[in-house]
Design goal:
The protein has 424 residues and is mainly beta. Helices cover 9% and strands 38% of the residues. The strands form seven sheets. Strands 8, 9, 10, 11 and 12 form a five-stranded antiparallel β-sheet that branches. This is F-box protein AT5G49610-like beta-propeller domain-containing protein.
Length: 424
């Protein structure tokens, strides 16, 4: 018979001197964030969501230094390619209390509508200014109530330049019109564009620019053009070509290299102004479609559009030498599948107007009885961006919003409604 072995004593029966104290856990700190990893994350923030970068810069000094470094701004633009759309501009017509034998006098104001998560301080409405064009991060305004005739604005940095028209250009820029108070006598098509040599327009902020004006003399059958250079601070000589149709001064223009394409009001022909050679010529599209509209440039070719039935018809046209032009591509987009079917007014073809195009992003602005819609050509998605039904022309504003924001912002200062800091 085996002897019975007593069970081991429980911990409670051990003498106090033999007890081991429970191990003490040391407080652990979260792993340090790797700067290179965070930089890669910040590079992938959407271009139309700059508020996220502003808030991140306000979190800590490390992120602030990273996001405000000039190299980050350069790499951010290269990573995203085409500049994002921060918003769009349009003009509104106002009637005064004064009237003449021709009717009530009118004046204009320009408005900015933000489509991004952050609104730069200079992106605001301007009374008695009329926006004429927007391209390469610049906006051209007609400012007859100021000492100068025009102002070019960088809406991100707030930097602006004043321009006085050359007296030799007045006869094709302004027509005598007693029916309007301030702006409507301007009868030329104006274009602002970057003039930096071989620029990819990803980082052309603060560089030289040109402003081209193409118009016609209401007394003569000819088109005229001239260019203002910010580098020389002077105008070129006026270039002319015989042409029997009026220039569409409110129409969309297109820029391909040194050439500007401007539509006419009474025909489908285009006036081509070669700024480098200072030559004017006329080309005719190889097709005739009811109410076809020159929208801009896509993949280096002219983009035309028309709304029928309601279907969006798109053409791309490549202009060749000697005024020749050839059809390049044709697309059809059914609007009924893109617009909300709960609003029957959207399908009213007579009320639909093509009023704008964001080059590089493939976004068309469509005005309807239910408001203003954007249509992304690549994704075939639509979005209502404004309630107005009477916009004649929309000019998208595309630019990167990255830079240094000075002292760290508090949480409420970093909200999208508040702008702050100096942007590079």
């Amino acid at each position: 018979m085996r002897p019975q072995i007593p069970p081991p004593p429980t911990p409670k029966s051990l003498p106090m001197a033999t007890r081991s104290p429970p191990p003490q856990r040391r407080p652990t700190s979260p792993p340090a964030l790797i700067d290179d990893l965070m930089r890669e994350i910040f590079l992938r923030v959407r271009g139309d969501d700059p508020a996220s970068l502003v808030r991140s810069a306000a979190c800590c000094w490390s992120w602030h230094r990273m996001l405000s470094h000039p190299d980050f701004a350069v790499d951010y633009r290269k990573f995203h390619g085409a500049a994002p759309m921060l918003g769009f501009l349009y003009n509104e017509t106002h009637l005064t209390n004064h009237s003449t034998s021709y009717g009530q006098l009118r004046w204009y104001s320009s408005h900015f509508v933000s489509t991004a998560t952050f609104r730069p301080p200079a992106c605001r409405d301007r009374r008695k200014w009329r926006v004429l064009d927007s391209r390469h991060g610049l906006v051209l305004f007609d400012t007859p109530t100021r000492g100068e005739d025009f102002v070019v604005y960088d809406l991100v940095t707030g930097e602006h330049w004043e321009i006085r028209a050359d007296p030799s250009c007045h006869y094709f820029m302004w027509w005598p019109d007693h029916d309007d108070d301030l702006h409507d006598c301007l009868r030329c098509n104006a274009t602002v564009l970057c003039a930096k040599d071989r620029c990819d327009h990803l980082d052309c902020r603060g560089g030289p620019f040109r402003v081209a004006f193409v118009g016609c003399d209401y007394r003569r059958d000819a088109a005229h053009a001239a260019v203002y250079s910010s580098e020389a601070c002077e105008w070129t000589a006026v270039t002319s070509v015989e042409h029997e149709h009026y220039i569409h001064y409110r129409g969309h223009r297109a820029v391909v290299g040194d050439k500007i394409y401007v539509p006419c009001m009474e025909s489908d022909s285009l006036i081509v102004y070669n700024m480098g050679e200072q030559e004017l010529s006329v080309i005719n599209p190889p097709f005739v479609v009811h109410q076809i509209t020159l929208m801009g440039v896509e993949d280096g070719m002219l983009l035309f559009a028309s709304v029928v039935k309601p279907t969006l018809l798109l053409w791309s046209m490549e202009a060749g030498p000697g005024g020749a032009a050839r059809w390049a591509r044709h697309r059809v987009i059914e609007l009924e599948s893109l617009l909300p079917t709960s609003v029957p007014a959207l399908l009213d073809n007579s009320s639909m107007r093509l009023v704008g195009f964001a080059e590089g992003l493939g976004v068309i602005f469509l005005s309807t009885k239910a408001g203003l819609y954007t249509i992304e050509l690549s994704s075939r998605q639509s979005k209502r961006v404004h309630e107005s039904q009477c916009m004649e022309k929309v000019m998208p504003y595309t630019s990167f919003y990255t830079g240094e924001w000075g002292p760290l912002l508090s949480s409420h200062e970093a909200s999208p409604a508040v702008g702050g800091g100096t942007v590079i």
